[in-house]
Amino acid sequence: MAWWLAALVVGAAPRRVWRRLEPPLPLVATAFPAGILTLTAGFAIGVGGFLTFAEQSADASNAWMLRQLTTPATSYDPNVALVPYGMSVLTLFIFLFFTPAGLIALYLVGTGTLRAVAAYLDADDARGDPVLSGMHRAVTMLLAKGRKEHARLARERREGPETPDRLVTGGALGVDADYVLLASRRKAEWDPGAIILTSTDWYRLGVPFDLETPRGVRTAYPLTKMESVEVVRRGIQYELPRLTAKGRER
Hints:
Number of helices: 7
Distance between the termini: 70 Å
Low-confidence stretches: none
Structural class: alpha+beta
Radius of gyration: 34 Å
Strand content: 5-15%
Largest sheet: 7 strands, mixed
């Protein structure tokens, strides 16, 4: 029972983190009642807050009317009597959209309804609080971007200054390929199996690997010449540099 009750509250967490908490928390099983609980909390906050707000608004309107009635008759405008009536009609709207309690209540009722309906229709579509989910997604993306940038900078420090690509034979490096292209920077979309199209020949790209050289780390791309013509949906246009006599950079 304790895990079940805890799941009703923790269920507001983003769906992406549920797999880390379940088990022991039955988050999917309690998704529907968790949504109902959120909706009920919003309704309770809304009703209590609205009654207090309406009472304060009525007191303010009555005080305003008394001040207007005590003004000299020559300056009294009969239309002012309509102001409190108009304000009373808009009281609920003003409370919901222009007060902290109203905004909180509106949000909890709306998101609680959304979560409850989603879980009721399909358990696999159960979700947590949308704002928390959005914040989690944004923070995760920023952290991933930061880690990627840190890895890129660390890699470039190991690679050293950017230099032109070099081409050596596969035998010079003990690689089962016709040629190996040494690049000081990794090439986008140069994945294993890609087809490299030159003006004279086509090459199939092998599995790239890192090669330590005196000038820094180089990404080695094994290239095997294609002897037969194949249907290529997408090839990479690239002109190979001149063949280097020696297999190692100096």
